[in-house]
Amino acid sequence: MARGNRGWPLKVQEDFLKRMGDLYTNGYSLLEALELMSIHFEAEKKRSLLEAIEELKKGYSVHQVLESLHFNQDILSLLFFSQKHGNLGQAFRSGGALLERKRYYRDKIFSILRYPIMLLFLVIIMLVFVQLVLLPQFHLLFSQMNISLSPIISVFFFLVVQIPILLMWSVLGIFAAYLFYKIYERKLNPSQKVDLLLKIPLVKTFLSLHYSHYFTQQLSSLLLSGLTINEAIAVFEQQRYHSFFHSKAKEYRKFLVEGEKLETLVGREKVFVKGLDVVIVHGQKNGKLGQELEQYSKLLLVKMQEKSEKLLGRVQPVLFLGIGSFVFVLYLCIFIPMFQLLGGL
């Protein structure tokens, strides 16, 4: 299969998926929708879509074709599952909504960090100026006037000298830790990678919500399409876009054949939110497991969005407070020595 040179931007993928979802649910076939979409794209993307149409005619599935265009892995996973439950139009729309959320949070994080980073850059310039220009002048004046440094001024001078060193070592430490993690990560299987991430408190919260939402959303779609639990878990094993669920599905199938219940397996899994096993038991008792998992996946999505908004709302004030405190210390480093010099005249 031909491969695209580079992936489409997130916004372009989002618009493409939303329009494809609308066209498909309004009665267009997949090929007709792609042909219509190709008219509205620039030359390079139009050529990619025309090649995609040819690949579909050869028998490739839509997720394989979009994989060659380097679409987001989460989207490819959604489209893979849509082959099994048959609701391709909804998969396109869900994919568009998913990318819209990703783009929203990416842009929001950028807008939150933009001004603090600019301020931090200016503060670093001020710090360099104080360290290279003002401090030597203060030391020279104090020595010429035979004025000894007070303990407070000595502390501030020490901070001005040590803070850049501390910042440098912090950046190097973070970079080294990241490199170590990436090297160490290669030696781990998918379950071990998840277990490692679950040891980080903040990451654990969002990872649990994300994985639980993904599992309940896809499982509910498969069950509502008429598959049994065993057949649905087999579909999770067949997909290759999410290595954790591929490996876990393989384990689950073995245990299910041996007579264990799905709620027992889910209850043992650390990455899933507490209570998911209870939802499964309740849904099975009512004979509406698919519907209840679908509603629960929507609840998890809302909870994930609320926690994200809450976290982002706290980040900027904390950054401004930290930078403001740093600027305050710099001003003290400048003015306190001046006051002592004036007092020594």
Strand content: under 5%
Secondary-structure element order, as H and E? HHHHHHHHHHHHHH
Count every beta strand, where a strand is a DSSP E run of 2 or more residues: 0
**How many structural domains does the protein architecture include?**
2
> Between the first and last Cα atoms, what is the distance in angstroms?
83 Å
Give the % helix: over 70%
Structural class: mainly alpha
Describe this structure in a few short sentences.
The chain folds into two domains: 10-71, no CATH class; 101-345, no CATH class. It contains 14 helices and no strands. It has helices at 10-25, 30-39, 43-57, 62-68, 73-85, 88-144, 151-185, 190-197, 201-224, 229-238, 243-257, 262-268, 276-286, 289-344.
Task: Please provide a written account of the structure.
- The protein has helices spanning 10-25, 30-39, 43-57, 62-68, 73-85, 88-144, 151-185, 190-197, 201-224, 229-238, 243-257, 262-268, 276-286, 289-344.
- 82% of the residues lie in helices and 0% in strands.
- The relative contact order is 0.09.
- The mean pLDDT is 85.
- The termini are far apart.
- With 345 residues, the chain is mainly alpha-helical.
- It contains 14 helices and no strands.
- The protein folds into 2 domains: 10-71, no CATH class; 101-345, no CATH class.
- It is a multi-pass membrane protein.
- Belongs to the GSP F family.
